[in-house]
Amino acid sequence: MRLSARIKCFKYLVYAYVILISICGGAQLVIGAFLLWTHKQYAPIVKNQFWEPFAVLIGLGIISQALCYLGWTSTSRKQRCYLGLFCAFLVLFIVILFLVSGWSVATKAHLIVPAEVAIETSFTEFLAKDNTNDQTHIWNRLQRDFRCCGYNGIHDYKKNKQMGFPWSCYDPIDTKVFNTGCMHVFVKSIEMNMIRVAVVAVASALIQSLGIFCAIQLTMLLRRPTLMLPNGDNNHSVRVKRTRELTPLSPVTIGNPTPHSSTKPPIPLKPVVPRVDQPVMKSSH
To answer: Which of 28, 91, 120, 265 could pair with 61 in a Cys bridge, judged by C-beta atoms 3.0 to 4.6 Å apart?
Structure first.
């Protein structure tokens, strides 16, 4: 396969690879924004903690779109320097995705104790201020949306005889009281969101590492020096150059040197002496 054909083939492969990176980056943006928005609705219960992995996932999605712009422009213009920079940034970006995945799993493993303490403090304040009838209070929204009641269960309201069960603890369909405590349900929800961040980061890293060979190969192909003709045929230009180098000098070429020829003075031609035949003597009889 000719060099120009190989460059063209890998060029379109890199285009497809950049589109794939853009799709992964868009998925990171959408999923990260959705998880952050869901967490922010009940973040005051946990003292506005554990939102960092979702924000980092959004930031990685934005960075991936910037990498797509760099890869697309450097490929279309065949700029080897920027294409190599794109490959280096892409390798670093994939490593960061794996690190974010590990960090999210580690955060999940260490959030139970601080989350339990924050939830218990928030529930104590909720009971102390007697906001059980406030339909817009965050604890009433939490109990309604997560179908839970109290910190550990309905016994948290039974301890206070003057306070009944709030409306958010009742199932609107069969009017039964939810038995599950909100602490367990809410902490489990945060842990699942952390796992989602880890899965998205690992999946994006694996998908984006599929075509990095194509980008590296195109960078190596653009490294080879070629001579371009107006028709864009690299091999033909090389053949023309070799043909001109092997052509012997003619008197016209010597008299009119081309701009690419040597600057040495032309070699003078030796004079040629004409050959004179001796006359033939005929004998007479």
So the answer is: 28
